[in-house]
Amino acid sequence: MSTVPVRPSRAIDRGYRERALKVIPNGMYGHLSTRRFADDYPQFLARGEGARVWDVDGREFIDLMCTFGPILLGHAHPEVDAVAAATSARGDVLNGPGPEMVELAELLVDRVAHADWAMFAKNGTDATALAVVTARAHSGHRKVLMARRSYHGIVAWALPEQSPGITAEDHANTELFEYNDLASVEAAVARAGADDVAAIVCTPHRHDVFVDQEPVDPAFARGVRAICDRIGAALVLDDVRGGLRLDVRGSWEALGVRPDLSAWSKSLANGYPLAALLGAEPWRDAAGRITATGSFWLAGAPMAAALTTIRILEETDGIALMRASGQRLQEGLRAQAAAHGLAVSVSGPPQMPLLLFADDPEFAKSLAWSGACARHGVYLHPVHNWFLSTAHDAATIDEALARTDAAFADVRDAFGAD
Amino acid sequence: MSTVPVRPSRAIDRGYRERALKVIPNGMYGHLSTRRFADDYPQFLARGEGARVWDVDGREFIDLMCTFGPILLGHAHPEVDAVAAATSARGDVLNGPGPEMVELAELLVDRVAHADWAMFAKNGTDATALAVVTARAHSGHRKVLMARRSYHGIVAWALPEQSPGITAEDHANTELFEYNDLASVEAAVARAGADDVAAIVCTPHRHDVFVDQEPVDPAFARGVRAICDRIGAALVLDDVRGGLRLDVRGSWEALGVRPDLSAWSKSLANGYPLAALLGAEPWRDAAGRITATGSFWLAGAPMAAALTTIRILEETDGIALMRASGQRLQEGLRAQAAAHGLAVSVSGPPQMPLLLFADDPEFAKSLAWSGACARHGVYLHPVHNWFLSTAHDAATIDEALARTDAAFADVRDAFGAD
User: Are B144 and B201 in contact (CB under 8 A)?
Assistant: First the structure.
């Protein structure tokens, strides 16, 4: 097919996979493991530039995952990398932070509507974990309410109870509700005891793996806010996945719903490791009392990178650019699927799209289509939302669509039209 | 005094402190906060080079903290920084790891005697937390035993129960013993139930804050190993603080005691954020089943930096160099204190010294002496062990000792001789 580039051998990737199997459990772990994907995915990547990545065999891909979020301005952004390298050359991690920590805290407090203070860490998990500890220290309450199947990091209270190594005691203070179902939140409050709820934790929209993304119902967001106010619990917005990419002010600001605490990470520093807990004034004292520390948390390079990332995002109107490109992609995918006679759902904010197939309970079509995309030179995920960057311009999206079209043809050939 | 350099104004540091107070809880948090130190410490640092750091006002310090461990080869090591910058320019965090992840896992599995596999993360806390979850997944047991007052990161089960925001339920599966007291371990096993102990977690030596460091009793280490074998628990060595700096093979290898799992972080990559969980073959399957993932965990630059750091450490016989410099420092400090008529204890492995004063229950002398050291141009900690790097050569130690001598004189003038 003319749109399919000639693909080189995959011998180098296979070689590293064999070596990895000996010294890494299952050869790889976590969300970057491709062992549950179609075989067409590379496990080991060699480089990235803008909206593209190359694997160790030299295969090129248009990257619709952006490292699952961290890459906001495109891979290997020269300006961000130069600032980070200069900070490292100065001494990155010292016995105290550098001035850029104050500047970044000031910038986030200025931009994020609910925030009066900031703390920095490394993982999204650090930020959600610190949010809950802060909420408990503030109120003296113990319980945490979260939506069933939401992902809030690998902190034990937020992992599914059946996850290996997680104990019943880890969940002693966790109560589940259904996203966008306010009555289920009230029921969870009742189970927890209204006087013992420390925090209600929410993602800005429903972006659970395996299902269509779902916007938050504004009435739900307002209702959760009202419940928190009524019972003296902290409303914690887990903006690790959406923050900055959807709205610099925080992903619920457009709804007019302000959390008490918000967790940020992924895209803050265009790939450099950084997380932030932002909070409103009443929670400052509690945040100052908890034990919160990590060896690399106050490193300067990621903070300098974040200052540059946010400045460039704003100067280039990057969010509008990502929205436009995402809409172009979403509309293109819907049209292609229809043209091939395939029933799909394309969901999510344009900057974070996801495509799933109708009547695909075992995700066989998703796995086949995503594998075909990889084969044709588009890196996306079968069941987890994707991420666009500001490097994804209209021409790149059109090129990606030419490749996804070939992948739809493969799926139609293999499964037939719907 | 002739050894005291002229110190510039501190206006810039004070300015950043004032700004920080507005946007960061207490103006700073965690182990890099200086608010409980003497006023002579700067909070904000501008740069580091080799064994020295400079604050934002241009004050120079010989650095005996090495960022509390991460700096192993000296600040801003040009070769390590060049490798990291080159990796970032290639694209640091991609949709999959780069080859350096396999190379680093192979190197650690080769060097660390007990290790058959490796997983990487960002914080020391990640590594200790993953170790316990892996141990639980392996045995199906729930309880974790740790020494009272040991620090194993900010994971809730390991923090003191009185730490704000920590609940009684967080400690439901934690049992405490006394370091170097095997009978207390047996008692903790009995309280936990011998068939329900998942892990016994130990630091390689006792390096708790506020007290003299204490070597591990080899009989204690062997005894804990035997208990773990008897009850089917994992022996977890928390080598976050000592690993690499004390022994590339793991800090208990010289004793002939091999843990099942070990947690590494701090010094692995000379300041670049990295942590590692290393494990023995029988724990590989469990490690492969747990939920273990983080947005920046498989980033290439810290792994490339770690490969370079370990190579340089070995090529330069860096551990022997740090030991010799540490002995020179420890002997010099003991002689100086005696000459000033001050009773002190200098404890710890030479690479990780600590000085405390006798008869100093409120640490008034420690605070005064450490403040005087800061004033005279040596950055060390009043009550937490220090860290040396391979950049601390004999000449640097002698220069540091000239400055600490002035600090002892200040303490003798203020408190009198013992």
Answer: yes
